[in-house]
Design goal:
Glucose Permease (Domain IIA); globular; Membrane-bound Lytic Murein Transglycosylase D, Chain A; 10-stranded antiparallel sheet; two-stranded antiparallel sheet; alpha+beta
């Protein structure tokens, strides 16, 4: 019986070690360092990837990349790596530290330090990428400051206008993009959600602080898919569009502020 008990105690450690087993191309302390950046979660019946991401305060996209998922389908008993303040990237053939750093928008030295590596990693190596600013293939690296949060017709531009409800001269602090209610709304750039809730006039509103003087506002939403304090990446779905607050029809009010002053978003978009 004691043999069975010992095996039972050792099994979780063996599983954990196996999950992190991909070669790190460095000393054993690199493996220990990586283990401190993630936990292992075993999927239970009824779990969804989105719910797990919310529970741990991790962007859904980080979970997908860290576990090499190509869809959101998960199953009971599956073990997922839950990254802490970063992404776990599996090196592919042809990739270098320089190309990986560029793909995630972080400095190469940051990756080297975080993983305790000096040489180029081999394919299959799992690297910890702290606080990525972009994702591989993300359109946030197009050269423009922001990406479009939704695609639709601009129904009202930035600047002076006659208020559509009160009928008096006013100044529109953003742009209105006409889209069907329930359209996924994406973060226009990476940042931290500074507000997610109801705001007079805006209705359901999400505000993202991008940490460099810029903030983006997403108003008249029908459903929030993020919460205050959550980190998001460019292109990550943060809400569904709607018709809440002072609104004359389904659309997204998209607003950008620099140093708390509204600016025209159009020159900042592709």
């Amino acid at each position: 019986m004691w043999i069975i008990a010992v095996l039972a105690l050792c099994l979780p450690l063996a599983i954990f070690t196996a999950v992190f087993q991909p070669e790190l191309g460095g000393p054993s302390q690199a493996l220990d360092s990586l283990q401190t950046q993630a936990t292992v979660y075993e999927v239970r019946a009824g779990d969804t990837l989105s719910a797990i991401a919310t529970r741990y305060g991790v962007p859904l996209s980080w979970l997908a990349i860290s576990n090499n998922l190509t869809s959101t389908t998960i199953y009971p008993g599956q073990r997922l790596l839950i990254p802490k303040d970063g992404v776990l990237h599996t090196v592919k053939s042809g990739e270098t530290l320089s190309s990986i750093a560029k793909a995630y928008g972080v400095a190469e030295d940051v990756i080297r330090t975080a993983n305790g590596v000096a040489d180029e990693p081999k394919p299959g190596t799992r690297l910890y990428i702290p606080n990525p600013n972009t994702l591989p293939g993300s359109s946030s690296s197009t050269g423009y400051r922001f990406i479009w949060p939704v695609r639709g017709t601009i129904s009202s531009t930035f600047g002076p206008r006659i208020h559509p409800i009160y009928g008096v001269p006013s100044f529109h602090t953003g742009i209105d993009i006409a889209v069907p209610e329930g359209t996924p709304v994406r973060a226009a750039a990476a940042g931290t959600v500074s507000f997610a809730g109801w705001e007079e006039g805006f209705g359901l509103l999400v505000v993202i602080d991008h940490g460099d003087g810029y903030k983006s506002y997403y108003g008249h939403l029908s459903k929030l898919l993020t919460s205050t304090g959550q980190k998001v990446l460019a292109g990550e779905t943060i809400a569904l569009s709607g018709n809440t607050g002072l609104s004359t029809g389904p659309h997204l009010h998209f607003e950008v502020r620099y140093s708390d002053s509204p600016v025209d978003p159009r020159p900042l978009l592709p």
